[in-house]
Amino acid sequence: MSAVLKDTPELGAMREADLDEVLTIESAIYTHPWTLGNFADSVRAGYDCCTWRLYGELVGYFILMAAAGEAHLLNLSVAARHQRQGHGTTLLRHAAAIARERGAHNMFLEVRPSNRAAQELYARFGFRKIAVRRDYYPAQSGREDALVFSLVL
Fold it and tell me: Which end of the chain has fewer CB within 10 Å, C or N?
């Protein structure tokens, strides 16, 4: 029996078996990527950890934590060769739908000021900058702030 590859992207639950592929993307697109432990802990904690596959290839993923009427998008990433093709927007749409299902009224996220492409994606989706967390991220030299964005669901 042979596997049939789907020609439309599919959202699926991230499993520990996916983590090597996830880390390959994470390490390729970030100077300070999440670790295997970060992802494994999120999966084990029962967060909404989702993969996005096209023709069986991992294209992107997100980690969403929802509780007490709000959701926090902890990580949303798209492989470099698949960026700027609408996958980020589609992943955001799925994350927002899951957040609503979990009873969230707002979704929050942090993004680096240096990540202009992500900021533009979030703004197009309807997120608004609401705060700055000083020295939040590790950087090549010292620390970098985080811009906090919020979306009313």
Answer: N
**Which residues fall within 8 angstroms of residue 27, CB to CB, at 6 or more apart?**
33
**What interhelical angle do 116-125 and 87-101 show, nearest 10?**
50
Q: By C-alpha distance, which of 61, 56, 54, 69 is closest to 108?
A: 69
Q: What is the 3-state secondary structure (H, E, C) of 7-20?
A: CCCEEEECCHHHHH
Conformation bin of residue 119: beta by default, left when phi > 0, alpha when psi is -120 to 50: alpha
All residues at 6 or more sequence positions from 126 whose CB lies less than 8 Å from its CB, including other chains: 151, 152
